[in-house]
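Lesson 9: reading folded outputs for more than one chain in a single document. The general rule is that every protein is listed as its sequence immediately followed by its structure tokens, and records are never interleaved. Here is the first one.
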Amino acid sequence: MEHEKEEYLEEPVSPVGQYFNSSSLCLYIIAVLEFEVPIDDLQALVLLKDVFLPISPRFSSIMVQEKNEDKRWKKVDVNLKDHMKTPIFSKGKSLEFYDKNFHDYLSTIAIEPLPQGKPLWEIHIVNYPTKTSLGNIIFKLHHALGDGYSLMGALLSCLQRADNPSLPLSFPSLKPSKSESSNTSFWRKISCTMSSVFNTASDFGWSVLKSSFIDDDKTPIRSGGEGADFQPISISSIEFSIDHIKDIKSKLGVTLNDVVTGVVFYGTRLYMQEKDSKSNISNSTALVLMNTRNIEGYRSIDDMLNTKKSKGPWGNRISFLHVPIPKLNETRISNPLGFIHDTHNIINRKKQSLALALTGTLLDIEGKFRGQEAVAKHIRKTITMSSTVVTNLVGPVQQMSLDEHPVKGLYFTLAGGPESLVISIMSYMGKLRVTLKTERDFIDEQRLKSCMQNAFEMIFKEAMKIDCKTN
């Protein structure tokens, strides 16, 4: 029996996995595939059995804990029908009816707890048309299974290129420009090193204070309560053209990330000002979740699971940064490009800092001395003291398909946390999808989406004027 116990309980749950499945925090990743054809003939059970389950042993395991030991993964038999849900809506209704029913269903299941006695995932197949698709598949995956990088890699391993399944999917390059990394003088390197030391000390110290003592102001995106874990939520998204984002980037001489972050922050501030004119200069912070793997692009599942050699291992390899949301004064309202430059300067400064790595190290040390539950409480407090959580993933350039069903759209969000607003960003097929998870009855979801759209249009319009002035 002792040998059997060791065999079943050989893989420990990572510290971050334990933080995310505790009495203080229970976080989920929600991913949605939108299809351009009906999916009523999809061989879902076969795909789950033959494709999804073999991806990782964690999809066939539960968390267990022996007395005072850390939690471990235990292999169990999986009844696939327990994990596959197919909702039934009324027949013969309008597109608007099914669209509303889908989004209500998505928002409801996102915060429902998964049973701990079964593997921590569900797949929901919605065979009804919406305004954006002819069918949807919702993946609900506990964050303890892995972070967005791991789970997106798992999802992509189930999909093929729609145009040619024999070819691999490709992704936008994440490499920095060579001008930033080469031909740098000795004194320039010394200056950068000194800046890095100063910025690291400043950012890390600020992060510790923000996580423990300094609350953001109460605003239309932050109620200041104990947390919105169990409050009703809404999930919706808005699309932007990546080509237009590249146009803004080239006009302003900044990065794509600067433009996207600036648009999101500017739209958030516009919404805050509409709801409360004083909140445009409030102290508001975005908690930005970052992948700490030093890699470019996704690795294969085999490579992820080969932890001894993998550069992009499976699991939760994330940390967070506190990024102040620039304030919206009268000048920035009339000159939105200045807001992009403010965001660019903030992000550039954060790049010259090792605070991200130090934050992860601090959590590890705290876990060893105070235990995983104490760290989970610390992370929860960090989230509630901030205004919003921001996260992003890179999706493929080409169209994907699942069992010859072309995927029209792809988006994701986080659920289960105490924050009132999560902003998730994902690229796919030349489009950038910004998904908003909002606390219902506190944040006006439609108004926030409108402000995001207005922010993008204002920034794009002003950026396009630059040529007119120089020609």
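And here is the second record, again sequence then tokens.
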Amino acid sequence: MGKDKVISPHVLLFPLPLQGPVNCMLKLAELLAINGLHVTFLNTDYIQNCLLKHTHVQSRFEDYPEFRFETIADGLSEDHPRTGDKFIDIVIGIEKVMKPNFVEMLTNGKLSSKSSSPVSFMIADGFYSFAIDIAKGAGVPLMYFDTISPCSLWTFFCLPRLIELGEVPFKEEDYDRKVKGVAESENFLRYRDLPSFFRTSDLNERIIQLILQEVKEIPRSEGMILNTSEHIDGPIISQLSTICPNTYPIGPLHALHKSILHSAQIASPLASPSNSLWEDDKSCMTWLDAQPQKSVIYVSIGSLAVMKVDQVMELWHGIVNSGKRFLWSQRPGSLDDHDRVTIEKAVREIMEDKKDEFQSSASMMAKLATQSIADQGGSSRYNFNRLVEDIRMMSLRTPAHD
């Protein structure tokens, strides 16, 4: 394709089909589109249908003529719940159906160099360890975006060392012992703080092998995007940089997204545009607005985890027995193990015994987040601008720009 036909880099964003990764990637996609990049967002059919049903995402992105959605099959039946307890089903679908379809799209399909609009740069979820070889085969630079917390990601990178030291797998009686194989956290990290699947009795389990493969492939990419900032997670970023030197801490992404949209004078039709895969229930807002400031506990178990009924009841009793106001966000299909006494104690600690300490810490984090996204001197704003320029530069090396 002649250079005169290539107006700007064509960036493909490929999130893991879960609420958190999709939400983060959509915010990044809009920021790239604001900067004049041609963006394609690749969702599974299921995720895209959820977004179209419950959000205004289609009309929001119509403001960007160089943005489009594409979809890919996830290999699961339409009625599959796609919840945390079925995550291995999602993994099998990715390997057996999504991966070969993705290869076809990049080599011969609508995103390939044979198409009228070939991809010249790729940003994929860190979980897609297979993406790096596909991208290299297509001559397309790839960066990984791990939307999980950098602290959690660092434990992933430390997994080989933890296995070598015999700290993984571990047993229940070890939960409160300190972990020695995770640098920068030896003084406070307990076994119970590690990801739950590190408790496996079998290191050949698929999830363990997938993590080992992920941390092996990420350093082969052009860089790693992180949803944090140097102000907030400097020590952890330093550790991650020893493995993947080219890192782009651009978070907190929701704050950066809001700030850049404001700077660009782009008015959203909604005060806080939703990327939710489920219908938002705003009936709680009248009650919430009537409560004293900093008096309500927000409870959410995330978009993937599934709890048993007795676990939910223990959690509910523990919070109720604390006597504190709370707002519980519960998604369809949600029905992490504690008894009600432990939960009540934890809530009282947050809202009474250590209330000032927690509020002070939260205020400090908010201040650091604000500093990170500032127009002048903000590390995340600087790293985002660097990311955009690097995408432009690296895209020039692709077949799409030859």
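What the second record shows: Confidence is low (pLDDT under 50) at residues 1-6.
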